[in-house]
Amino acid sequence: MLTLSNLCKRYPTGDLALTDIDLTLPRGQVLALIGPSGAGKSTLIRCVNRLVEPTSGSVTLGGVELTRLSGRRLREARRAMAMIFQEYALVDRLTVMENVLSGRLGYVGFWRSFLRRYPQEVVAEAFHLLERVGLPHAIDKRADALSGGQRQRVGIARALLQRPELLLVDEPTASLDPKTSRQIMRLIRELCAEHELAAIINIHDVLLARQFADRIVGLRAGRIVFDGRPEELDADILTTIYGEEEWDTQSEAASSQEPESPARPLHQPLTAVAAGGVR
Ligand SMILES: Nc1ncnc2c1ncn2[C@@H]1O[C@H](COP(=O)(O)OP(=O)(O)OP(=O)(O)O)[C@@H](O)[C@H]1O
Ligand SMILES: [Mg+2]
């Protein structure tokens, strides 16, 4: 459904963020993109919807080469891709319902959305989605009155109201506590299954990636160094992705902090411990 071919991105500053990225994402697949800070994860996601302009290579979604489009045709093609952000990107002074409805801005035209006159069936759909993400009682609350987890639920409902085929998710849990992070990842995972949505999820937490993704891609210095199933992600592969030096440092730091009674369960694999420390 989504194909990236020979995708390269060099920023005007000279930073080479992506080199020869080849990736095909089938319909309905949830892909976790992992890798150290600066590896190019956000750049890759943003090249897909052309928030960042690729330097060379192509992005094709549903047979349409996005990298050749501009103007209205690009805007229309972008409807098929919805973003979910770490910082939620809600409008604080608007209500939850208004924030969710803004997911349809790309459809209803400027004046209608300016006057906030959304068709009744769109409002009903937004309400249904707010129920689905667990916020039916918060529709009239202002967005800035919500917790981080609730804000992310609004962000997810807004993304789905766009009726996308592909979710582009940049560190959805980076500002959330561990339990809320799991709930949010589970929700995204379930919604992808319910709506047959593909997703690319940038995530630092390797445990969450392993638990909730169908496939893991590891980026290092702008190149894909691993592409496989979650259960294939072992210590060697994590070293390839994150590097030997940080790996050793993190393992030592973790063991010296908790010599006798680790707070984490003992059955948790070493790979997870080391990877969890690399942020
Ligand atoms: N707007 C920009 N202008 C210049 N260089 C940039 C820009 N955005 C990112 N870069 C550079 O591109 C490379 C990849 O950055 P990117 O933000 O994609 O990494 P990332 O994997 O998302 O990192 P993080 O995990 O910290 O979010 C880095 O070297 C970064 O400095
Ligand atoms: Mg990033």
From TrEMBL:
Signal peptide: none annotated. InterPro entries: AAA+_ATPase, ABC_transporter-like_ATP-bd, ABC_transporter-like_CS, ABC_transpr_PhnC, MetN_ABC_transporter-like, P-loop_NTPase. Residues 2-246 form the ABC transporter domain. The keyword Cell membrane applies. SMART domains: AAA. It comes from the Bacteria. GO terms for molecular function: ABC-type phosphonate transporter activity; ATP binding; ATP hydrolysis activity. It holds the Pfam family ABC_tran. One of its GO terms (cellular component) is plasma membrane. Keywords: ATP-binding, Cell membrane, Membrane, Nucleotide-binding, Translocase, Transport. Residues 250-260 have a biased composition (Low complexity). It is a peripheral membrane protein. It is found in: Cell inner membrane. Residues 247-279 are annotated as: Disordered. This is Phosphonate ABC transporter ATP-binding protein. The gene is phnC.
